[in-house]
Design brief:
about 70 residues, alpha+beta, 3-stranded antiparallel sheet, 3 strands, globular
Length: about 70
C-alpha cells in the first residue's frame, strides 16, 4: 500500500488531546507500508474490525476504537 501523507497522521496526533493516537497510528502506518492488499476484502481478512465502505474505502478502528481512520 502506498501512504500518500504521513504528515496528516502526524498533524493529527500532535493535536491537543490526541497524543495517545501516536502509537496506534505508527503501528498502522508500518503495517500498511508492508501490506500487499489487492482489495478491501484483503484488508477485512487481516482486520476483522475494519469496515468496508463505498468507493473502496476502509475504516480502521485506531486506539481501541477511540479514533477512526478512513482510507
Amino acid at each position: 500500500m502506498r501512504v500518500i501523507a504521513k504528515s496528516s497522521l502526524k498533524k493529527f496526533w500532535e493535536q491537543a488531546g490526541c497524543a495517545d493516537a501516536r502509537g496506534p497510528l505508527h503501528s498502522w502506518y508500518d503495517e500498511a507500508l508492508k501490506a500487499t492488499w489487492q482489495s478491501p476484502q484483503d484488508v477485512k481478512d487481516r482486520y476483522a474490525s475494519a469496515s468496508i465502505c463505498g468507493n473502496n474505502r476502509v475504516v480502521f478502528k485506531i486506539g481501541g476504537n477511540k479514533y477512526r481512520l478512513v482510507v
